[in-house]
Amino acid sequence: MNLQRLDKIISSQFNMSRSIARKVIRYGRVTVGDSVVHDPAFSVDPENAEISFRGQALEFKEHIYILLNKPKGVLSASEDKKRQTVVDLVPEKLKRNGLFPVGRLDRDTTGLLIITDDGDFAHNVLSPKKEIFKTYKVTLDGNVTEDIIKSFSAGITLADGTACRPAKLKALEENIAEIKICEGRYHQIKRMFGTVGLGVNELERTALGGLKLPENLAFGDCRELSKEELECIFVN
Q1: Can you give the pTM of this predicted structure?
Q2: 102 within 8 A of 114, measured Cβ to Cβ
Q3: What is the pLDDT of residues 28-56, one digit of tens each?
Q4: CA pair distance 233, 236, nearest whole angstrom
Q5: Which residues lie below 8 Å from residue 76, measured CB to CB, with a gap of 6+?
Q6: 111 in helix, strand or coil?
Q7: CA 228, 16, 102, 67 torsion-angle sign
Q8: If DSSP codes are grouped into helix, strand and coil, which group holds residue 67?
């Protein structure tokens, strides 16, 4: 049995601060079973109890995992006073406290990005030791050669001396390639191609581990990930 304070449950599941949650409980807006509960510190098992807020039944989820097709011009951040962030794109029905992007995509990079409130999950996805490969489609100002593919496979050393882990690179068509990396340094892909004299014109993340960006998810759209889709991430 996983007992939690009622105010903590209401706060996390209905996207409100703990102080607001305490107020709505004291005002009699929350029921547990058939009883109105006025005590914010009331302990309850959220996975088994019938909890409602203003008549809306709670479907408890300890964490949430949201898939976003990131458009250009949006920051991979939780909040920013001047610019739009990826969390701003999350619809109200999926919003909750503590959301953040798992890793980051540069402002002009598009594609697959996960938003969650689960720090342990994010650590497992991002840790280079886990070797969860991120797949990108890259449009270049030149062509990928066999020598470039071999140098990426061996591990590129950036201009500042930083050694990158081996990357999987293959040419798709003229000026377009696919690259897979299992780390995420600042502007890493652009810097990697820069070492071989190629510039990046467009960059889109198409997969994370075994999870692929759905073709029917438009730029800026979000949806919740299923348990099966989450498991795909850890299968490269």
Answers
A1: 0.89
A2: yes
A3: 999 999 999 999 999 999 988 999 999 88
A4: 7
A5: 70, 85, 86, 101, 103, 104, 105, 106, 107, 113
A6: strand
A7: positive
A8: strand
Contact predicate 114/229, CB 8 Å: no
Amino acid identity at 18: R
Chain position carrying tokens 């991430």: 233
Q: How far apart are CA 205 and CA 213, in angstroms?
A: 8
Instruction: Let me know if 106 is a catalytic residue.
Output: yes
Q: Which of 76, 112, 115 is nearest to 98 (CA)?
A: 115
Q: Taking the alpha carbons of 103, 18, 96, 211 in that order, is the dihedral positive or negative? A: positive
| pLDDT at residue 236 greater than cutoff 80 | no
- Tell me the three state secondary structure of residue 88: helix
**CA–CA dist 135, 31 (Å, integer):** 46
Tokens of 145: 């050669």
Least confident of 10-14, 179-183, 187-191: 10-14
Annotated catalytic residue, options 7, 34, 39, 106: 106
Q: Cα separation of 229 and 236, whole Å?
A: 13
Candidates 134, 184, 203, 196; CA nearest to 159 is 196
Say if residues 135 and 180 touch (Cβ distance below 8 Å): yes
For strand 110-116 and strand 200-208, is the pairing parallel, antiparallel, or unpaired? parallel
